[in-house]
Structure of Phosphoglycolate phosphatase:
Amino acid sequence: MRFDAILFDLDGTLLDTIPDLANAANAMREELGLAPLPQATLATYVGKGTPNLVQRTLANNPAATVPDPAQMARGLESFGRHYHAVNGDAATLYPGVLDGLAAFARAGVKMAVVTNKPTEFTVPLLERFDIASYFSGVVCGDTCEEKKPDPMPMLHACELLDVPPSKALAIGDSVNDALAAKAAGITVLAVPYGYNEGMDVRTLEVDDIVTSIAQAAQWAARQ
Ligand SMILES: O=C(O)COP(=O)(O)O
């Protein structure tokens, strides 16, 4: 294979985290006197990191900004507390993830997670699902100054793994992964089962769409 490193998105790609994210988001809304939102709506608000999720969830609007900094601060504190309490409880690994990670490991490539999720929620999830040892780099939403769709986290992961972007393959579920990878000069695959902020994955500018991480490993082996 022509790749030396694989960069994985987390939410919507390796793990289905929506049930826990939605529980915490609605617990926050309740604490702030707001009615709960459907899980399907909340799923479209995930992808640009926790502060953005809190903002969208408080406003119930994907484009909204919360003008009241006090409400935002209360929301962030509340969401964080509730998400810490449930993080991983109802999350599941997607089919093909374990087989795919094992296949990439057998191929001898280095692997990293590049997620917009904050470190405090990411590391416990990787450990809980027993996949932490696959990754020699973990780049989270609070690791770099910029989050995906900025290329900075992808480029930082390449530096951590000591692999040039031209030899890296990113795998994600959303526009944030596709834009970040392309801007970094990294080949990118999309999986269709994630969130993508509610949009069809076929709208993404990616090198290919694969049905699972196991299929991504087969795709990479053919390159
Ligand atoms: O927390 C988020 O916004 C989602 O993180 P992701 O980059 O793993 O999809």
Observations:
- The pocket of 2-phosphoglycolic acid is lined by residues 9-12, 46-50, 53, 115-117, 141, 148 (CB under 6 Å).
- The radius of gyration is 17 Å.
